[in-house]
């Protein structure tokens, strides 16, 4: 099936077309050629996004029987035209094709064609890979899984799909092929629900080593296309590295415990020394108080020993007889002698 859409023409007769064909069709692109005796050249070039323009063939403007053929592409003159034949088109032929006219130092684009190659649509709807929850150790077995969902009712190309595994290591620029699965029908199961997609699960297992670390891709080839999964990253954790990290952790914990112990010991020594100083001060104070009390007691004893004791001696003197008769009976007491005793 060929579908051609014509774009608008400008005043200088520039033409741009869109053409869609199926894979395997033969395509002929044409460009008007005007005979001229001036040195004029016509070229067909192909432009693919991200690449340099590719010259597919060229000719002189006047009649010329030369043919330029490369693989499936042929460029030659026909009656009043410069044509480009592409046989057995492939998906890679999708590009923009230009017919260019070059006269002396002038270049002019005469025609542009966007050629789209439509391939057979694959029946694959999704390709997913399971993630690994944790790193694995060398010698352990690991299983990678790839799930492929397809709709058999929409299948337009013959044959079954093929599943491949690729691995890209940290030092590799391109993935390398490592495994392919056999008959896909052995891993597929049809859902009992009507019009539900078919699910095929592909498992890939191996005992890993340190060199198996990297990113793994599941690729499904079908209908001339390759569909990749969402990749699975495999991390290999070396046991010696784990032991080294564990030893480092234990060493740090022991250092921390030792530091805390030293701080506690210093604090206890300080507290004990402070309490000892306070006890010494209290003992000295008690001794001083005891000495002062003893000295006070001795001083008091000395004061008591220095007391002066006085003893009065009383005597009575009889009054004269004449006085007795006239006076009332009174007695007169006279202190005649005092003796003092001082005891040291």
Describe the protein's architecture and organization.
By secondary structure, the protein is of the alpha+beta class. The protein has two helices and 21 strands. It has helices at 239-305, 321-326; strands at residues 3-6, 15-22, 27-32, 40-47, 54-60, 67-70, 73-78, 81-86, 95-103, 106-118, 124-129, 141-150, 162-168, 176-180, 188-189, 198-207, 214-222, 225-228, 232-234, 308-316, 333-342. The strands form five sheets. The chain has a six-stranded mixed sheet, with no helix packed on it. Strands 13, 14, 17, 18 and 19 form a five-stranded antiparallel sheet that branches. Strands 3-8-7-6 form a four-stranded antiparallel sheet, with no helix packed on it. A hairpin with an 8-residue loop joins strand 1 (3-6) and strand 2. It is elongated, with a radius of gyration of 61 Å.
Structural class: alpha+beta
Termini distance?
Answer: 153 Å
Morphology = elongated
Output the strand order for the largest sheet. 1-2-10-9-4-5
Instruction: Classify the beta-strand content into a percent band.
Output: 35-45%
**pLDDT averaged over residues:** 76
Order of helices and strands: EEEEEEEEEEEEEEEEEEEHEHE
The number of E-state strands comes to: 21
Q: What portion of residues is helical?
A: 10-25%
Poorly predicted ranges: 1-12, 321-330
Helix tally equals 2
Largest sheet: 6 strands, mixed
Rounded Rg: 61 Å
């Amino acid at each position: 099936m060929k579908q051609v859409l014509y774009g608008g023409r400008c005043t200088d007769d520039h033409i741009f077309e869109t053409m869609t064909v199926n894979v395997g069709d033969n395509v002929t692109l044409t460009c008007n050629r005007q005979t001229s005796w001036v040195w004029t050249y016509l070229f067909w070039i192909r432009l693919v996004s991200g690449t340099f323009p590719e010259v597919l063939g060229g000719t002189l403007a006047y009649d010329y029987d030369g043919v330029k053929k490369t693989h499936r592409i042929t460029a030659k003159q026909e009656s009043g035209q410069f044509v480009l034949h592409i046989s057995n088109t492939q998906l890679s032929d999708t590009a923009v094709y230009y017919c260019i006219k070059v006269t002396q130092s002038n270049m002019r684009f005469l025609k542009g064609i966007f050629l789209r190659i439509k391939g057979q649509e694959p029946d694959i709807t999704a390709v997913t890979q399971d993630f690994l929850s944790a790193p694995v150790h060398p010698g352990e077995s690991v299983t990678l899984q790839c799930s492929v969902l397809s709709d058999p009712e929409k299948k337009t190309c013959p044959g079954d799909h093929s599943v491949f595994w690729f691995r890209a290591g940290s030092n590799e620029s391109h993935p390398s092929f490592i495994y392919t699965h056999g008959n896909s029908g052995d891993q597929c199961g049809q859902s009992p629900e009507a019009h539900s997609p078919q699910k095929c699960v592909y498992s890939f297992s191996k005992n890993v080593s340190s060199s198996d670390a990297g990113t793994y891709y599941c690729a499904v080839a079908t209908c001339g296309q390759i569909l990749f999964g969402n990749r699975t990253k495999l991390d290999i954790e070396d046991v010696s590295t784990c032991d080294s990290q564990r030893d480092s952790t234990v060493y740090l914990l022991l250092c921390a415990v030792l530091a805390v112990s030293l701080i506690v010991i210093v604090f206890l020594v300080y507290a004990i020394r402070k309490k000892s100083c306070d006890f010494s001060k209290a003992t000295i104070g008690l001794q001083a108080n005891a000495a002062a009390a003893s000295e006070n007691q001795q001083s008091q004893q000395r004061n008591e020993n220095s007391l002066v004791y006085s003893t009065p001696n009383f005597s009575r003197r009889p009054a004269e007889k004449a006085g007795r008769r006239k006076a009332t009976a009174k007695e007169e007491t006279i202190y005649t002698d005092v003796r003092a005793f001082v005891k040291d």
